[in-house]
Amino acid sequence: MSENFQIESDLIAEQNASRATALAEDFDYLGRKLGRRGIDIDAIVEKARGLRVAIPSWGVGTGGTRFARFPGPGEPRGIYEKLEDCATINKLVRSTPSVSLHIPWDKPDDNAALADAAKRLGLGFDAMNSNTFQDQPGSENSYKFGSLSHVDRSVRQQAIEHNIDCIRIGQAIGSKALTVWVGDGSNFAGQSNFRRALERYLESMREIYAAIPDDWRLFIEHKMYEPAFYSTVISDWGTSYYCARELGEKAECLVDLGHHAPNVNIEQIVSRLIQFGKLGGFHFNDSKYGDDDLDAGSVKPFQLFLIFNELVDAELNSANGFDPSYMLDQSNNVTDPIESLVMSAIEVSRAYVQALIVDRAKLEDVQSASDPIAALSTLKEAFTTDVSPILAAAREREGGAIDPISTYRASGYRKIKDKERPATKGISAGIV
Ligand code: LRH
Ligand code: MN
Fold first, then answer.
1. The pLDDT of residue 432
2. Rounded CA gap, 107 and 80, in Å?
3. Of 112, 281, 366, 410, which is the most buried if we count CB atoms within 10 A?
4. pTM of the predicted structure, to 2 decimals
């Protein structure tokens, strides 16, 4: 595997050298500006250097829709090539050292070999993702009418065993969490008994929970609709929260930004889950209509900022058990997936840094004074501050690229991978 092309640190150093003066000027200017607000820019850079967001293995392949998928050049053809691309993203932005696998899409033939390969690439593994929304060749039972909530015990048993299998693989490669998203639901009124479906889901999840190691977490991912279009068993944060409470302290709620109706106040859902001690993690992406899985911060950057505003508030007030797991979950249908994931990782860092420079003392004062204009202006002052120099400095100090996209393009990585990876028919690394 090591003979495959990788972007070397001297190329990054060379590219950074040509941008160092401009960055120093911009950084100095921003430092003085924040200094006037009593903010130490270097302290913010140190915080930014610590932010980590996991890459979805399924994100480095070209995604598609039910209408079509347009594979790009040099598509990864398996988990090892997916890891190469994940390592390339981390080399450039230095905030994505872990990968979230999806089973069976990434089922390793040899767990230890996979863990070694990841280690050599400077990567680790974040939450495992089970898949009981597709039937596997040769599988005994179909998930057409559901999985963990299916009326047939044998189907539920198959789905439970699959989730336990994901835990075992995760333990072997160093993961510490399992994300369970099920598409279970109905397409017609009367097709499903809402109460009994949820009871069956919980009964199944209790068996999965029993297999969760003590130092692991179980993330419940809710979603309003799709693939079911009339009702979904775990359709909202309230149901997810109820189930997490029912299951026990290792069970927490995962918020995928695309899994809500348009205009839902997701930052308030985040605040609630933090207050209730059940915020487990995120799948960051963006959307305009449905679960569009677009690049994070590409449609509603203000919403992403407002979500991090709640997260930073919790971090500063060390809310009980507050340790959310940050992951991207997007489908890159028309871009180079590496470029989209690099941009998304940068936008997540941007929202975090903008939230770090919010004048929280002032915000508290104007909130107690019921002064909405002053409150909004206090947030907007942070949101409209161009923190790019802080993000670039954090990457550079971590050994990454000041300008990741230009550096990536200068490396010719995709062209080289196109030669290294002759396309193989029928292999799809993305969601479809
Ligand atoms: C469901 C979802 C879930 C993954 C899948 C790839 O929409 O967000 O997190 O399993 O996408
Ligand atoms: Mn998701």
1. 56
2. 11
3. 281
4. 0.97
Question: 363 C-alpha to center of ligand 1: Å?
Answer: 36
Give the pLDDT band of residue 430 (cuts 50, 70, 90): low
Residue 224 burial by CB count (10 A; 0-12/13-18/19+): exposed, middle or buried? middle
The pLDDT, as a whole number, for residue 428 is 59
Mean pLDDT of 77-97: 98
Look at residues 395, 419, 417, 398 and name the one whose alpha carbon lies nearest to residue 406.
Answer: 395
Question: Minimum-distance ligand to the CA of 291?
Answer: 1
CA 266 – ligand 2 centroid, Å:
15
In short, whether 293's Cβ falls inside 6 Å of ligand 1 is no
Find out whether the beta carbon of 75 lies less than 6 Å from any atom of ligand 1. no
Task: State the Cα torsion 159-164-165-171 to the nearest 10°.
Answer: 150
In this structure, the strands spanning 217-221 and 231-232 are unpaired
Cα–Cα distance, 350 to 348 (Å, whole number): 5
Confidence of residue 321 (pLDDT cuts 50, 70, 90): confident
Would you call 361 exposed, middle or buried from its count of C-beta atoms within 10 A (0-12, 13-18, 19+)? exposed
DSSP tag of 318: T
Which residues lie near ion ligand 2 (Cβ < 5 Å)? 256, 283, 329
SS3 190: coil
Q: Which atom of ligand 1 is nearest to the CA of 226?
A: 7
Pocket test for ligand 1, best of 132, 225, 283, 331 (most atoms within 8 A of CB): 283
d(CA 388, CA 406): 15
Instruction: Render pLDDT for 346-372 as a digit per residue (tens, 0 to 9).
Output: 999 999 999 999 999 999 999 999 999
| Ligand 2: centre distance to CA 56 (Å) | 9
Atom of ligand 1 nearest to the CA of 331: 6
Q: Among all ligands shown, which has an atom nearest to the Cα of 131?
A: 1
- DSSP at 335: S
| CA Rg value for the chain | 22
Ligand 1 pocket, 260 CB below 6 A? Answer: no
DSSP-assigned letters across all residues of 9-70 = HHHHHHHHHTTHHHHHHHHHHHHHHHHTTT--HHHHHHHHHT---BEEGGGSS--B-SS-B-
